[in-house]
Design a protein that fits this description.
heterodimer, A: 288 residues, mainly alpha, 3-stranded antiparallel beta sheet, 3 strands, B: 49 residues, 2 helices
Chain lengths: 288, 49
């Protein structure tokens, strides 16, 4: 099942990054597919990106909300939030485990042999702060003299944007090198920090910083497709703790917002059929 | 396969709410604006400029 998951992650990577004509055009994909929401974190300024990033779009709509209202536009971000919410209500953080390119990148980094460290559990709350402040409040409220805000998360934090868009753009358009400054080096430093942290700790960006993961986490209890604990079968052996890449104690918190539903606990650890796949209340065990 | 027929209503309520939000966005022609934004490179968003 882990091989299948890796294949699906790779497939999603190529689905949301399917424009490979960029070395010729030296520009990003500009076709109609960019009206489709990328389920995972995938910068839409990446040359190969074929879909829009929900976080980037939401910030762009919120930062220009005053301007759009003045010019007769009614762009409140409902299309973007509706798309994100549908994905969240359908499968929540399954997306993180199965369809996020940046999640796959961190998983591959974590395979590099090194000392492995636990993740400080308190930092899991940080990502909700990034979602509330850097994605919603700051772009909406901190505006310049023209009434325009800034895409705070993309501009100051997002390492996925640096990796997939910032660095490639400088390679494709070397003349832009003259414009880089502290903003660029700040983002490079953040990227390097998360790359190094991912080698020693499993998915640190997803757990501490990702606002999209934080949004999907809000749905984990009430999503259509989720993992379910069958308490009468659980022996509290703790086998599920040992395989979990998010360090969740599934038998204690089966609806944890941190669960990315990679299904390792169900397929590799539990010998007692105490974990099943639940779709709208109907359970399916691992033999399906 | 086990069938424990206790359907959960929560996901369907959420799916309905977000479908309505999505449709409201479409009614306000937001997809065209999203497409317009997604076609342009925001250099400062990716740390350049």
């Amino acid at each position: 099942m882990e091989t299948v998951r890796k294949l699906i992650q790779t497939l999603w990577f190529f689905l949301v990054n399917g424009f490979w004509g960029f070395p010729m055009t030296r520009n990003i994909y500009q076709g109609p597919l960019k009206v489709v929401c990328s389920p995972g974190l995938n910068c839409y300024s990446c040359s190969a990106a074929t879909t829009y990033c929900p976080l980037g779009s939401l910030q762009q709509l919120l930062l220009g909300i005053r301007f759009s209202l003045e010019t007769g536009g009614m762009y409140f971000g409902t299309y973007v939030v509706g798309s994100m919410g549908l994905l969240g209500a359908l499968c929540g953080r399954f997306i993180c485990g199965w369809a996020c390119p940046f999640g796959l990148f961190q998983e591959l980094l974590h395979k590099i042999p090194s000392v492995k460290l636990a993740f400080p559990a308190r930092l899991t709350w940080l990502k909700y702060g990034f979602l509330a402040c850097f994605v919603v409040l700051f772009p909406l409220l901190l505006v310049d003299q023209f009434g325009l805000g800034a895409p705070w998360f993309c501009k100051y934090v997002c390492p996925a944007g640096t990796l997939k868009a910032g660095i490639p753009m400088l390679i494709l358009q070397p003349e832009l090198k003259s414009t880089i400054g502290w903003l660029y080096w700040n983002k490079i430093a953040i990227l390097v920090f998360f790359v190094l942290w991912s080698v020693v700790t499993s998915r640190p960006f997803c757990r501490s910083t990702c606002p999209l993961g934080a949004f999907y986490a809000l749905f984990n209890r009430h999503r259509l497709i989720k993992l379910k604990l069958i308490t009468e079968n659980c022996t509290q052996c703790g086998a599920c703790h040992r395989v979990c890449p998010m360090e969740i104690h599934f038998n204690e918190t089966p609806d944890s917002g941190e669960c990315i539903s990679c299904m390792k606990c169900m397929n590799q650890a539990c010998k007692f059929d105490a974990i099943s796949l639940d779709i709208a209340g109907y359970s399916f065990n691992r033999d399906i | 396969m086990k069938n424990k027929a206790v359907p959960r209503k929560g996901p369907f309520i959420l799916l309905t709410i977000f479908t309505m939000l999505l449709l409201a966005g479409i009614a306000f022609e937001e997809p065209a604006r999203v497409l317009e934004l997604a076609k342009a490179i925001c250099l400062s968003c990716i740390g350049i400029g």
